[in-house]
Amino acid sequence: MKSCGKQLLQSGMPISGARTMLKANQPDGFDCPGCAWGDPEHGSSFEFCENGVKAVAWEATEKRATPAFFAKRTVSELRQLSDYELELNGRLTHPMRYDATSDRYLPVAWEVAFAEIGSILKGLANPDRAEFYTSGRASNEAAFLYQLFVRVYGTNNFPDCSNMCHEASGIAMRQAVGVGKGTVLLEDFEEAEAIFVIGQNPGTNHPRMLGDLRRAALRGARIVVFNPIRERGLERFSDPQDKIEMLRRGSTDIASHYLQPQLGGDMAAIRGMAKAVLAAEEVAAAAGLPSVLDHSFLAEHCAGFAEYKASVEATSWAEIEDQSGLSREEIERAADVYIKAERVICTWAMGVTQHLHSVSTIREIANFMFLRGNIGRPGAGLCPVRGHSNVQGDRTVGIDEKPSKDFLDALETHFRFTVPRQHGHNVLAAIGAMLDGSAAAFIGLGGNFARATPDSALVEKALRRLKLTVHIATKPNHSHLMPGETAFILPCLGRTEMDLNATGNSQLVSVEDSMSMVHGSAGINRPASPLLLSEVAIIAGIAQATVGSAVVDWAELAEDYDRIRDHIEATIPGFEDYNKRLRKPRGFHLRNAAAHRKWQTPTGKASFSCQALPEQTVHQRARKGEGRFALQTFRSHDQYNTTVYGLDDRYRGVYGERQVIFIHPEDLKAINAKAGDRVDVVGEHDDGIERVARDFRFVPYDIPRGSIAGYYPELNVLVPLGSAGEESDTPTSKSIMVSFRRRNAA
Ligand SMILES: Nc1nc2c(c(=O)[nH]1)N[C@H]1C(S)=C(S)[C@@H](COP(=O)(O)OP(=O)(O)OC[C@H]3O[C@@H](n4cnc5c(=O)[nH]c(N)nc54)[C@H](O)[C@@H]3O)O[C@H]1N2
Ligand SMILES: Nc1nc2c(c(=O)[nH]1)N[C@H]1C(S)=C(S)[C@@H](COP(=O)(O)OP(=O)(O)OC[C@H]3O[C@@H](n4cnc5c(=O)[nH]c(N)nc54)[C@H](O)[C@@H]3O)O[C@H]1N2
Ligand SMILES: [Mo]
């Protein structure tokens, strides 16, 4: 509790916020908007973390971005502020409409906003000319209502933050095991003998996961990390809830093995481990020792093992070492941990998914885990660690530009309307349509589209050319300052706030975490302004004004979210008794077939893939040109995506600034530069477009030579729209080819 108090003070949270924090991730409280990590069995021993505190404090701030704030400055003037400065102004309080004459946002009545939005949407030549974006904070109820409205309107255009996030995980997992979600539960972390953490920085982005890793390390589980950067949280960790550890300023070693591959080198590294496992199997067989492979799993459950084995044998160690940047010995040592452990979990996040070859890399992770049957039994499995707190739930309830036939059929039968069958736009397709003029309207359910997307300068311009832009948001951000011809900012309740219906009853929403647990969330704070509406109510208002109530009585659903949940239950498998089970302390688990070794794949089996390694990764290409580097863009300890809380990145020793480039000291020497030198970072994507991020400072760091790193979203101007993951279409924001231009040429 003491550390909690200290953190609250550090976060500058008003005292009322302390009560807010105590209710995070409680059975009768709200779901922490921080991340999608699971909640423990015993809701009473509440779990919080430093960054969860920040996320809650950010929303529960007492600052307000009122109409007076918007009256003081023109939108062009506001555009000069950074996201950090913008969001410092606090919570939005009024619905606002853009006035082009004065270049200002002015207050508007809700009914007027809904009517105008409805009339513009109705007037579009074709519903496919509108793009409906979602950021992963929306509750299941809001997201379900949103997709229902958009489909009644007539399109599947659902660009979603997950297109830039875990898209590759969903695709690869569906191919490999038939379910696009992780197969483990939180409890499995208590039983795993080894945990492989690939391309993820939980110390900053999933701090509660670090607690589980720490407990695993303390009971002797081995933790193998693959990360180009030495992330402090993954090396050692002091638990703020462990009084003795805090008093002694002690810490627990987390990683037993820390491997630093080159950017994009993970598929090669994992293939190397698979090679070592197959070699160990041969040795064991020759010596008459027990098998290393799980032959009965392979025979009973898997398809394609022989082809996979052949492709591993065809991959040389030279190729593996060159592409991964790791030595054969290091890889074999990691493989040895895998071989000796009876139960293994593999987790991963953006360091794996935001590359050109993410889908094949995740297939390779699955291949590797199949070798010893590490899926569908206690203490073992695949665990893509999701980002936004309800990004997984949003997908489950229908935010999907390529919906399945079964889901569309269910909607059609249940609601009796003709659903649009044609696939819609993902994020990159939506941007393409905005740029070529075929899109006319953008509606954003949360998020900061212009800043989170690649080539952000281009996207900003594209937004401003639209007929209509609508942002449903809690705080002002840059996307709001790119108004279309008609533009609205619609302020909504956050998750920490009470959502009362007309009869004064508090409404419950629900979310799904990375472990497919669905649980309830009810805010406890007074709304930031009496004018705020819930996301559900806003969607219902727009829907009513656009498509009327012939198919769905929107107002009736907004009045009682139990009714929305009844519709979810009727159209989506797994939600039986939704309203009842949701009210149990920990909610309920959505059945995951793969976790029960039921494979909903075309072969009916867990499917091996057998592709060759990528011909070249970004670092292999960068190495060929003089002065070229492979850049990854990641998060600091003091930000939530495009929301910057502060300018420090404590674990990496950076204070008071964000325009930095982490680089190996020898690389600095090689380009004749030193720590602190300032440069412009120049994009080297071969499409002839000039991309420059100006005025960055070098920070020498423990990172492989040739690979560099810096913060998102400042570097998004360098992420090319034309570079996207194979199959996933995810912007490759962790493999950008760049060079430097000197600023202080002395
Ligand atoms: N506090 C806080 N919490 C968050 C967020 C936040 O911004 N702030 N964002 C949320 C969201 S939406 C998401 S998606 C998650 C993101 O969670 P993470 O995936 O942890 O996010 P990143 O900061 O992008 O970190 C990527 C990590 O992968 C490593 N990496 C980069 N490239 C490679 C590679 O090629 N190979 C390997 N092995 N490693 C690589 C980087 O060095 C870095 O440690 O966190 C969620 N939680
Ligand atoms: N270069 C680069 N680009 C990236 C990434 C990267 O690693 N590198 N990561 C990608 C990833 S993983 C993701 S998920 C995306 C994130 O992309 P987004 O989800 O679009 O961005 P956020 O920064 O999370 O959105 C922040 C805004 O959401 C609004 N908001 C906050 N809470 C609520 C709420 O409860 N309701 C509503 N309606 N609005 C709310 C606030 O107005 C806030 O300004 O960015 C992607 N872009
Ligand atoms: Mo994300």
Automatic annotation (TrEMBL):
Oxidoreductase in keyword set: yes
Co-factor(s): Mo-bis(molybdopterin guanine dinucleotide); [4Fe-4S] cluster
Pfam families found in the cross-reference section: Molybdopterin, Molydop_binding
SUPFAM superfamilies according to UniProt: ADC-like (SSF50692), Formate dehydrogenase/DMSO reductase, domains 1-3 (SSF53706)
Membrane-spanning intervals of the chain: none
UniProt similarity note: Belongs to the prokaryotic molybdopterin-containing oxidoreductase family.
Protein name (Swiss-Prot/TrEMBL): Oxidoreductase alpha (Molybdopterin) subunit protein
Residue span(s) of domain Molybdopterin oxidoreductase: 91-471
Alphabetical list of CDD domains matching this protein: MopB_CT_ydeP, MopB_ydeP
Domain Molybdopterin dinucleotide-binding: 629-692
Keywords assigned: 4Fe-4S, Iron, Iron-sulfur, Metal-binding, Molybdenum, Oxidoreductase, Plasmid
Alphabetical list of Gene3D superfamilies matching this protein: Dimethylsulfoxide Reductase, domain 2
